[in-house]
Protein backbone atom coordinates (compact mmCIF):
# COMPACT_ATOMS: atom_id res chain seq x y z
CA UNK A 1 0.00 0.00 0.00
CA UNK A 2 3.00 2.33 0.54
CA UNK A 3 5.70 3.62 -1.78
CA UNK A 4 9.26 4.15 -0.54
CA UNK A 5 10.87 7.46 -1.47
CA UNK A 6 14.38 8.82 -0.96
CA UNK A 7 14.64 12.59 -0.48
CA UNK A 8 17.84 14.61 -0.37
CA UNK A 9 18.71 17.30 2.16
CA UNK A 10 16.80 20.47 1.29
CA UNK A 11 14.35 18.69 -1.02
CA UNK A 12 10.72 19.80 -0.77
CA UNK A 13 8.29 16.92 -0.19
CA UNK A 14 5.15 19.02 -0.51
CA UNK A 15 4.32 22.71 -0.42
CA UNK A 16 1.54 24.57 1.32
CA UNK A 17 -1.48 24.51 -0.98
CA UNK A 18 -0.58 21.23 -2.70
CA UNK A 19 -3.48 18.77 -2.80
CA UNK A 20 -3.08 16.05 -0.17
CA UNK A 21 -3.14 12.82 -2.15
CA UNK A 22 -1.72 10.85 0.77
CA UNK A 23 0.48 11.12 3.84
CA UNK A 24 3.97 10.06 4.87
CA UNK A 25 5.93 8.05 7.42
CA UNK A 26 9.58 8.81 8.20
CA UNK A 27 11.60 5.60 7.84
CA UNK A 28 15.01 7.24 8.22
CA UNK A 29 16.29 10.79 8.44
CA UNK A 30 14.65 14.00 9.58
CA UNK A 31 11.78 16.07 8.12
CA UNK A 32 10.63 19.58 9.02
CA UNK A 33 7.09 20.86 8.52
CA UNK A 34 6.99 24.64 8.27
CA UNK A 35 5.12 27.73 7.14
CA UNK A 36 6.62 30.71 5.33
CA UNK A 37 5.33 34.28 5.67
CA UNK A 38 4.98 36.72 2.78
CA UNK A 39 8.12 38.43 4.12
CA UNK A 40 10.07 35.19 3.84
CA UNK A 41 10.18 34.41 7.57
CA UNK A 42 10.07 30.71 8.34
CA UNK A 43 8.21 29.19 11.29
CA UNK A 44 8.97 25.53 11.90
CA UNK A 45 5.89 23.71 13.20
CA UNK A 46 7.34 20.23 13.69
CA UNK A 47 10.50 18.23 13.18
CA UNK A 48 9.90 14.51 12.67
CA UNK A 49 12.29 11.58 12.93
CA UNK A 50 11.99 7.85 12.20
CA UNK A 51 8.62 6.31 13.03
CA UNK A 52 6.65 9.55 12.90
CA UNK A 53 3.88 10.32 10.43
CA UNK A 54 3.25 13.69 8.84
CA UNK A 55 0.77 15.25 6.43
CA UNK A 56 -2.10 13.04 7.50
CA UNK A 57 -4.57 15.66 8.80
CA UNK A 58 -5.73 17.06 5.40
CA UNK A 59 -5.87 13.55 3.93
CA UNK A 60 -9.13 12.80 5.76
CA UNK A 61 -10.69 16.01 4.43
CA UNK A 62 -9.42 15.55 0.89
CA UNK A 63 -8.04 19.08 0.99
CA UNK A 64 -4.66 20.74 0.50
CA UNK A 65 -1.66 20.73 2.82
CA UNK A 66 -1.74 23.71 5.25
CA UNK A 67 2.07 23.79 5.48
CA UNK A 68 5.19 22.68 3.62
CA UNK A 69 7.59 19.79 4.32
CA UNK A 70 11.31 19.54 3.60
CA UNK A 71 14.06 16.99 4.32
CA UNK A 72 16.67 18.26 6.79
CA UNK A 73 19.03 15.46 5.77
CA UNK A 74 19.10 12.51 3.39
CA UNK A 75 15.90 10.70 4.35
CA UNK A 76 13.76 7.71 3.46
CA UNK A 77 10.00 8.18 3.68
CA UNK A 78 6.98 6.02 2.95
CA UNK A 79 4.06 7.50 1.00
CA UNK A 80 0.59 6.10 1.72
CA UNK A 81 -2.04 7.04 -0.92
CA UNK A 82 -5.20 8.58 0.51
CA UNK A 83 -7.76 6.36 -1.22
CA UNK A 84 -6.09 3.06 -0.29
CA UNK A 85 -5.59 4.18 3.31
CA UNK A 86 -9.19 5.37 3.76
CA UNK A 87 -10.41 2.02 2.44
CA UNK A 88 -8.14 0.20 4.90
CA UNK A 89 -9.46 2.28 7.80
CA UNK A 90 -13.00 1.26 6.84
CA UNK A 91 -11.98 -2.38 7.23
CA UNK A 92 -10.03 -1.97 10.47
CA UNK A 93 -11.64 -0.28 13.51
CA UNK A 94 -8.36 -0.73 15.43
CA UNK A 95 -6.46 1.24 12.80
CA UNK A 96 -9.12 3.96 12.91
CA UNK A 97 -8.80 4.21 16.70
CA UNK A 98 -5.01 4.43 16.45
CA UNK A 99 -5.31 7.27 13.95
CA UNK A 100 -7.80 9.10 16.19
CA UNK A 101 -5.43 8.72 19.13
CA UNK A 102 -2.54 10.09 17.07
CA UNK A 103 -4.58 13.05 15.83
CA UNK A 104 -5.68 13.80 19.40
CA UNK A 105 -2.04 13.78 20.49
CA UNK A 106 -1.18 16.20 17.67
CA UNK A 107 -3.97 18.52 18.79
CA UNK A 108 -2.58 18.56 22.34
CA UNK A 109 0.89 19.29 20.96
CA UNK A 110 -0.44 22.22 18.93
CA UNK A 111 -2.21 23.56 22.02
CA UNK A 112 1.03 23.45 24.01
CA UNK A 113 2.98 25.00 21.12
CA UNK A 114 0.50 27.88 20.78
CA UNK A 115 0.64 28.47 24.54
CA UNK A 116 4.44 28.49 24.51
CA UNK A 117 4.75 30.85 21.53
CA UNK A 118 2.07 33.31 22.64
CA UNK A 119 2.29 33.32 26.44
CA UNK A 120 5.79 32.27 27.50
CA UNK A 121 9.18 33.97 27.40
CA UNK A 122 12.12 32.38 25.57
CA UNK A 123 13.69 30.76 28.69
CA UNK A 124 10.38 29.00 29.44
CA UNK A 125 9.98 27.87 25.81
CA UNK A 126 13.53 26.54 25.64
CA UNK A 127 13.21 24.75 28.98
CA UNK A 128 9.95 23.14 27.83
CA UNK A 129 11.59 21.96 24.60
CA UNK A 130 14.57 20.43 26.42
CA UNK A 131 12.25 18.67 28.86
CA UNK A 132 10.20 17.31 25.96
CA UNK A 133 13.38 15.80 24.49
CA UNK A 134 14.16 14.20 27.86
CA UNK A 135 10.65 12.78 28.20
CA UNK A 136 10.68 11.42 24.65
CA UNK A 137 13.94 9.67 25.49
CA UNK A 138 12.25 8.17 28.55
CA UNK A 139 9.31 6.94 26.48
CA UNK A 140 6.95 9.90 26.96
CA UNK A 141 5.67 11.97 24.04
CA UNK A 142 4.09 14.73 26.10
CA UNK A 143 5.23 17.01 28.87
CA UNK A 144 3.90 15.91 32.25
CA UNK A 145 2.07 18.65 34.19
CA UNK A 146 3.58 19.70 37.50
CA UNK A 147 2.23 17.99 40.58
CA UNK A 148 2.62 19.02 44.18
CA UNK A 149 6.08 18.05 45.42
CA UNK A 150 4.58 15.89 48.14
CA UNK A 151 2.74 13.86 45.51
CA UNK A 152 5.62 12.88 43.23
CA UNK A 153 8.96 11.14 43.41
CA UNK A 154 12.07 13.12 42.57
CA UNK A 155 12.89 12.98 38.87
CA UNK A 156 16.37 11.72 37.97
CA UNK A 157 18.95 13.73 36.07
CA UNK A 158 18.81 13.35 32.30
CA UNK A 159 20.97 13.90 29.25
CA UNK A 160 19.69 14.93 25.83
CA UNK A 161 21.15 15.79 22.45
CA UNK A 162 19.68 18.65 20.43
CA UNK A 163 18.46 17.05 17.17
CA UNK A 164 18.56 20.32 15.21
CA UNK A 165 20.81 23.32 14.65
CA UNK A 166 20.39 26.53 16.65
CA UNK A 167 18.92 28.19 13.56
CA UNK A 168 16.26 25.47 13.28
CA UNK A 169 15.64 25.44 17.03
CA UNK A 170 15.17 29.22 16.98
CA UNK A 171 12.56 28.89 14.24
CA UNK A 172 10.84 26.08 16.14
CA UNK A 173 10.38 28.06 19.37
CA UNK A 174 9.94 31.49 17.77
CA UNK A 175 13.15 33.41 18.49
CA UNK A 176 16.63 34.05 17.03
CA UNK A 177 19.80 31.89 17.11
CA UNK A 178 21.58 34.66 19.05
CA UNK A 179 18.89 34.60 21.73
CA UNK A 180 19.12 30.80 21.92
CA UNK A 181 22.86 31.07 22.59
CA UNK A 182 22.40 33.74 25.27
CA UNK A 183 19.62 31.87 27.06
CA UNK A 184 21.52 28.55 26.99
CA UNK A 185 24.51 30.34 28.53
CA UNK A 186 22.37 31.89 31.27
CA UNK A 187 20.66 28.56 31.96
CA UNK A 188 24.10 27.00 32.37
CA UNK A 189 25.34 29.76 34.67
CA UNK A 190 22.21 29.39 36.81
CA UNK A 191 22.72 25.62 37.08
CA UNK A 192 19.60 24.56 35.18
CA UNK A 193 21.66 22.70 32.57
CA UNK A 194 25.22 21.82 31.61
CA UNK A 195 25.69 22.27 27.86
CA UNK A 196 28.57 21.15 25.67
CA UNK A 197 27.91 21.48 21.96
CA UNK A 198 24.60 19.76 21.25
CA UNK A 199 24.79 17.66 24.42
CA UNK A 200 22.78 18.95 27.38
CA UNK A 201 22.82 17.50 30.90
CA UNK A 202 19.81 18.25 33.09
CA UNK A 203 20.96 17.89 36.74
CA UNK A 204 17.50 18.55 38.19
CA UNK A 205 14.44 18.02 35.96
CA UNK A 206 12.06 19.44 38.58
CA UNK A 207 13.95 22.73 38.66
CA UNK A 208 14.01 22.92 34.86
CA UNK A 209 10.28 22.16 34.81
CA UNK A 210 9.67 25.10 37.14
CA UNK A 211 11.62 27.28 34.69
CA UNK A 212 9.41 26.03 31.84
CA UNK A 213 6.45 27.57 33.67
CA UNK A 214 7.94 30.72 35.21
CA UNK A 215 10.61 31.67 32.65
CA UNK A 216 12.63 33.28 35.46
CA UNK A 217 16.38 32.75 35.21
TrEMBL record:
Instruction: Give me the Gene Ontology terms describing cellular component.
Output: cytosol
CDD domains in the record: CAP_ED
Keyword match Iron: no
Any one Pfam family match given in the protein's UniProt record, by short name: HTH_Crp_2
Q: Which UniProt keywords apply?
A: DNA-binding, Transcription, Transcription regulation
Where the record annotates domain HTH crp-type, the positions are 120-206
Highest taxon in the source lineage: Bacteria
Domain Cyclic nucleotide-binding intervals: 1-106
List the molecular function annotations (GO) for this entry.
Answer: DNA binding; DNA-binding transcription factor activity
Question: Which SMART domains does the protein's record reference?
Answer: cNMP (SM00100), HTH_CRP (SM00419)
Q: Which PROSITE patterns match?
A: CNMP_BINDING_3 (PS50042), HTH_CRP_2 (PS51063)
Q: Please report the name of this protein according to its UniProt entry.
A: Crp/Fnr family transcriptional regulator
UniProt organism field: Desulfobacter hydrogenophilus
Q: What is the lineage of its organism?
A: Bacteria, Pseudomonadati, Thermodesulfobacteriota, Desulfobacteria, Desulfobacterales
